[in-house]
Amino acid sequence: MMKKILVMVIPILISCTAFKQNKIDCNESAKFKECFFYHIQYIDKNISVTQDAKFIESLIFISNYAPVSLDQIMNYARTYPVGVFEKDRLKWMKWYEENKCKNIQFKKSYVIPEVFKD
User: Fold this and answer.
1) Residue 102 — φ and ψ, nearest 5°?
2) Residue at 112 is within a domain
3) Rounded to the nearest 5 degrees, what angle is found at the Cα of 50, between the Cα atoms of 81 and 105?
4) How many CB atoms neighbour CB 51 within 10 A?
5) Which residues contact 13 (CB under 8 A, 6 or more apart)?
6) How many Å apart are CA 45 and CA 7, to the nearest integer?
7) What range does the domain containing 52 cover?
8) pLDDT tens-digit profile of 38-90?
9) Which residues pair with 20 in a beta bridge?
């Protein structure tokens, strides 16, 4: 009986230890997180209102870290379609979750995508 209990308890203890170890090893950059989500919120609030210079700045920032469907902005109005944004937003969240524990640092300079160059 005791042997059966040990066989059941040991895997649970090992998995709990591994879970705790993963949490401890996460080296998330709080400053990057704040800035990254600030830009996402700015786009969120302005996607259907005004796509001004700050909006473009936010897209440029995000595009230097996570995937942005820049080819979809090459439309007649040169705007970021809402439906495309919603799909990209999911990709940004996935990218952040996959990379947050890697102590993401700010880049020294940012690449400006062709769509935003004059």
Assistant:
1) -95, 15
2) yes
3) 75
4) 18
5) none
6) 53
7) 30-116
8) 999 999 999 998 889 999 999 999 999 999 998 888 666 778 999 999 999 99
9) none
Place of tokens 């062709």: 114
- Calpha distance 10→13 (Å, rounded): 5
* H or E element, residue 15: helix 2-25
Token pair listed for 68: 């942005």
Please give the tally of structural domains in the chain. 1
Q: 């302005």: which residue's tokens?
A: 46
Has residue 69 been placed in a domain?
A: yes
Structure tokens at 96: 């952040």
pLDDT in tens, 1-38: 555 554 455 556 565 555 544 556 899 999 999 999 99
Whether residue 18 lies inside any domain: the answer is no
Q: Which helix (H) or strand (E) holds 39?
A: helix 30-46
- Residue 36 tokens read as 């990254």
Assigned domain for 7 exists: no
> How many other C-beta atoms can be found within 10 angstroms of the C-beta atom of residue 11?
9
Task: Tell me the C-alpha to C-alpha distance, in Å, between residue 77 and each of 27, 59, 67, 74.
Answer: 41, 16, 21, 8
| Two tokens, residue 116 | 């935003």
